[in-house]
Amino acid sequence: MKLDRKIVEIGRIIPRIDAFNKVRGLEKYASDYHSKDMIWVGVKRAGIPHARLKKIKIDKAKHLKGVIDVLTHKDVKGTNRQGVVRKDQPVLVDDKIRYAGDAVALVLAKDKKVLMHALSLIAIDYEPLPLIFDAEKAINDKKNLVHEDNPDGNVLLHGKIETGKGNKAFSECDLVVEASFEVPYQEHAYLETEAGWAILDSDGMLTITVSTQTPFRDRSEVAEALGLDIKKVRIIAPYCGGAFGGKDGITVQTLLGLAALTVPGKPVKIWLNREESFISSVKRHQARLYYKLGAKKDGKLHALDVRFFYDTGPYDHLGGVVMALGLEHSGGPYHIPNTNLKGWVVYTNNPIGGAFRAFGVPQVTFAMEQMVDMVAKRLNLSPLEIRLRNVIKKGDKIPIGTTMLSSTGITDCLNILKQHPLWKERERWKRDAPIFKKRGVGIASIMHAMGYGPVVPDYANAKIELTEDGKFRIFCGVVDMGQGNINSYMQIAANILNQDIDNIELILPDTEKTLSSGSSSASRTTYTFGNALIDASKTLKEYILNRVADLIMAKSIDEFTMVPGKIIHLPTGKSFLLKEITKFLNDSERIVTKHYRAPVSKELVSIDERLRLHGIPHLIFSFVSHLAYVEIDELTGEVEVKKYLSITDSGKIINPQILEQQIHGAIAQGLGYAIYEDFVVEDGKAKTLDFSTYIIPTAMDLPDIESINVELHESSGPFGMKGAGEINTNGPLPAVANGVADALDIRIFRSPLTGERILMALKEKKEMSN
Amino acid sequence: MKIRFILNGETKVIDVEADRRVIDVIREDLGLTGTKEACGRGECGSCTILVDGSPKLSCLMLAAQLEGREIITIEGIKKDSDMHPIQEAFIKHGAVQCGFCTPGMVLVSFDLLKRNKKPSRDEIREAISGNLCRCTGYQKIVDAIEAAAKREL
Amino acid sequence: MRKLFLPKSLDELWEILSKDPDISIYAGGTDFLVKMQKGIINPSSIVCIERIDELKGIREDNDKIWIGACTTHTELLSNHIIKENFPVLLKAIKVLGSPLIRNMGTIGGNICTASPAGDTLPPLYILDAELEICTKDSLSIVAIKDFITGPGKTSLKKGQILKGIFIRKNNNYTIHHYEKVGQRKALSIAIVSMAALLKVSSNGDIEDARLSWGSVAPMVIRSNNVEDFLKGKKFSIETLKALKSIVEKEVSPIDDIRATALYRKLVASNLVLRLIKYEI
Questions:
Q1: Helix (H, G, I), strand (E, B), or coil: what is residue A172?
Q2: Does A324 lie in the same domain as A297?
Q3: Average pLDDT score, chain A
């Protein structure tokens, strides 16, 4: 296939550069590393959810033929603790088992068969402890604790925000609606399970190649947990086979490091199987939410009371930050003058709740968007009308009391929806339902914040080089886990430098080569690194043109333009090859690095310091409106989404195809969350451990999606863009739930909306009316 | 056990344990890591290979079953040029995100278009329904296969 | 390392079986190898029978059709004899597993796995499929309902194999219906499935009816009460509604990770209403 030789432009579809190797099976993922002399490493998991560790019996395993070593916490020389905020997770359990997926021992073996056998020979002596499995109840449990050293007992973080008159304002409302909601865990189900490869070389350098979203943070965590000099740890991050937040932080990195330290010079490999991945990995938090929403007769939302409980399982991972983002979004994109918002994120012995695309927002959106519909129904307003009357405009206060200062396109999103044929023709479509089918149309409006928030620096360091071959090499500091951000970096640099993609080279994240630029997360990767890269590319261009201008004694650099591989002096038409010019530049001119730090909210009202540390308030938000055509089978209760519309305001567009990929993918995961995905945990043990019980949608379960963009210009963003990776994940669950309510006049308060849940609700309704 | 088969047009004679999984033979013994593993239970299609032209799950085949077969993996799908038109369509239509399902998707598409020159979108969706993708929502994969079909492969 | 055999003929298979009567047999591997890799079974020797031509193919045999046990689902789907004679079987196979599973899995495998959720089983029960059970020296014919003795259990003994399936042709039926309710549209395991063959006369009388359900009991359910009730009645929504309470009594489902017993019961009876779509 021929590459497009055109100068890369912003706003144009540029085929993803990574796809060229991926379609041929040539891209080397972390799980693809293999060699004849490598050692397989496997993890002995606790298998029980809560117990005091007494003894780990490893002798039998250690003496098995083909076993190289068996390691326990005694072999860990550092802190043996990892975590992003609270460092509360052991590399290998040393005191207590806090969930069934805890790593207890590590086996190094010559092949997979021996490895599996050896793992089965390890026995754990333990004293069982009472199980803590209900987040809401665990708050007040002072006796049974997941972490005895946590000052707040089982509460990892509690946040509360009050604005206006708070709950007193309910007495001023003409109508008040109350409901409670529950959502289960959602599993990321990235196709490439946790995998990595490590080696300790003769200079004492530990190199870990791993499927991760956070190479630079991983390096610090590995060094600290294993007691190594950070300079002796190198993390290489190839393209991930999916991540979605599930590889935001340590998965197998430290275990790989520990194994590699044991066998210097030999490569070691870990690749979790699907079951182990499901048992041990982080999930979207399961949650219980209590909502009370009051409105005036004219349809204006007036008061909101929220209490919610996020189950973070045994370790912090990013639980506090997830809860804080949920709190920030708990009132949706609406102007509600009086709010009383409270969130708890709580330790239990269930699987770990952590980062997952949209990060704490889908849970509250499920509740809030149904509440808005319930109010609309009571007031006899259409779901669209009530939203149009209440959505925030630039300069309005959002429900946490801070001011919306970014570009604010939610009204535009809703107005486009209002004019769309799918909205206008909905009644006719509903009437045409075939026998035993009921049809409904649901909508949702969403906002979603971008970036890390006010305290943790949201920065990137871009590095770009004019190579000795006259090409441009971008050193990408942020991982591409599949979302195509690295292609956007190429597009940004090539556009500024007037190059075609053939003249751009990419260096993937590697702590030795690229510069620290934060995580691939929080809808921030293109925004933050893109801004740094724009600066770096412009500066490099200036250096190059200055050099040429000086060489030929031109009046100014304005007389030049760059074209692929060349510089043209416009007045004379003379051209200069970049591969020649590069010889005249020294390294400090050829190589440019630039730092960028995202702007943050300066408002100090209503948000306490602890919440600020956990990331709220944010400054920049994206917006969407969603519409779902749903059809319910009355005989089985099954829901089918027949058509789906998304209207997105994520600023200006760098590459329409990559944006649409993000929209489709997020909606697909959102529809999975809405209808199919239910990670079942009983007594601390996961029950849905494969793809035949944990159900993600196939190609036959998803509709074609129509997506429309509202291209407001976000002045702080690279080329006017803002974050787009997560927001569309939030809409499908409430849109489908609202569609089901429209079709059946039944509210479903617990997701997912499976056939069983809906048929049972139908049955109950029928019995009530009889 | 000695096993003789054709891999991507080349005759291979290998000496492996008869009950070794075919996916391990391909990835580890023969170094072709384009064939992916994501479940090991036949529930995701990432490990798809063509066996005498028919797409099969290499995680649910044992080495002995390779005997005498003609195997094509993602690395062997191209013809003369460096890429098959289906692969080009996947790139052009944005059907690739993380890329982990892509090899399997390309191979089942190859089989579909061989059997059905002008599949409908529903037929395409049905044909790829044994291959899970977590990134794309499938729509652009369907677009790509539809486009590849129209170029009359 | 376990021993693995790949016989190319029945003679070779008989020899293997005579030397190693405890050997485990598999064809497509889509159930067997999953169990082996999960460690649920750990046989010391296995034989793969996918290469035995005598176990493959679809042939007309007077008033019957013979299907070789190792015929894959994909082969059945594209076969015109099956399409003409047994649309109900075809409809079931169309939603079995996924295209990849259908390329590998065989009809004989689906029968011998004897899962209550096996997709070919409800159609085979109402088609009165007969199974050809062979040893080296003997051949016997067993009705499928007698062959499957429990969930995952069959009457197959050591040294025996399922060679083929006989199904009598019957062009009497006007309605050939199969529906599977699973957790999604592909790659799904039946929560409830229902197969139905009905003969409805031109004036709307039900002359013959055969119905069966999967996943609502330890084995496929086919009931005289249900079939007798329908025979002679008008084919109407009222008749089907009246049938629902009978169906509810006949099924005895359980709770599992996919659904509760109550849901299964409701759906099993609701599904009969779907037949009304065939009303002329």
A1: helix
A2: yes
A3: 97
Residue B126 pLDDT: 98
Question: What would the two tokens of residue A375 be?
Answer: 């109010």
In Å, what is the CA distance from B63 to each residue of B6, B25, B26, B31?
13, 7, 10, 15
The answer to whether the CB atoms of B132 and A691 lie below 8 A apart is yes
| Ranges of H-type helices in B95-138 | 102-115, 121-127
Q: Tell me which chain A residues have a C-beta less than 8 angstroms from the C-beta of B140.
A: 660-661, 664
Helices A732-744/A361-379 angle, 10° precision: 30
Return the percent helix, strand and coil in chain B, to nearest 5: 40, 15, 45
Residues A633-687 have pLDDT tens digits of 999 999 999 999 999 999 999 999 999 999 999 999 999 999 999 999 999 999 9
Q: Distance between CA atoms of A523 and A452, rounded to whole angstroms?
A: 9
Sign of the CA dihedral A8, A13, A19, A20?
negative
Distance separating alpha carbons of residues B24 and B40, to the nearest angstrom: 11
- A605 pLDDT tier (thresholds 50, 70, 90): confident
Q: How far apart are CA C31 and CA C106, in angstroms?
A: 10
DSSP C224-243: HHHHHHHTTSB-SHHHHHHH
Residue ranges in chain C modelled with pLDDT below 70: none
Report how many helices (DSSP H) and strands (DSSP E) chain C contains, helices first: 12, 14
Q: How far apart are CA A702 and CA A732, in angstroms?
A: 12
Say yes or no to pLDDT of A561 above 60.
yes
Instruction: Work out the minimum CA distance from C11 to partner chain A, whole angstroms.
Output: 34
Give the mutation candidate from C36, C98, C266, C273 for the A interface (greatest A CB count, under 10 A): C266
Confidence of residue A305 (pLDDT cuts 50, 70, 90): very high
A residues 630..669 contacting C (CB < 8 A): 634-636, 638
Q: Are residues A465 and A518 in the same domain?
A: yes
pLDDT > 70? residue A499: yes
Q: Do C184 and A755 touch (CB under 8 A)?
A: no
Give the pLDDT of residue A648.
98
pLDDT in tens, A628-646: 999 999 999 999 999 999 9
One DSSP character per residue, B50-67 reads EETTEEEEGGG-BGGGGT
The last residue of one of the domains, among C168, C198, C229, is C168
* Structural contact between residues B153 and B119, judged by C-beta atoms closer than 8 angstroms: no
User: What's the CA gap between B128 and B142, in Å, rounded?
Assistant: 9
Q: How confident is the model at residue B80 (pLDDT cuts 50, 70, 90)?
A: low
Over the stretch C235-274, which tens digit does the pLDDT of each residue have?
999 999 999 999 999 999 999 999 999 999 999 999 999 9
Q: What is the 3-state secondary structure (H, E, C) of A233-256?
A: EEEECCCCCCCCCCCCCCCCHHHH
pLDDT band at A217 (very low <50, low <70, confident <90, very high): very high
Are A88 and A235 within one domain? yes
Query: Which tokens sit at A709?
Result: 């963009």
Helix, strand, coil content of chain A in percent (nearest 5): 30, 25, 40
Q: How many whole angstroms separate alpha carbon A462 and alpha carbon A493?
A: 11
Residue pair A157/A141 in contact (Cβ under 8 Å)? The answer is no
Check CB contact under 8 Å for B136 and A702.
no
- Averaged over A348-365, what is the pLDDT? 98
Please provide the DSSP assignment of C126-177 as one string. Answer: HTT-EEEEE-SS-EEEEEHHHHEEETTEES--TT-EEEEEEEE-----SEEE
pLDDT at A604: 84
**Is residue C130 located within the same domain as residue C44?**
yes
Domains and CATH numbers, chain B: 2-76 (3.10.20.30), 85-150 (1.10.150.120)
Look at the block and give the residue holding tokens 């207590």.
A96
User: Which residue among C146, C168, C190 closes a domain?
Assistant: C168
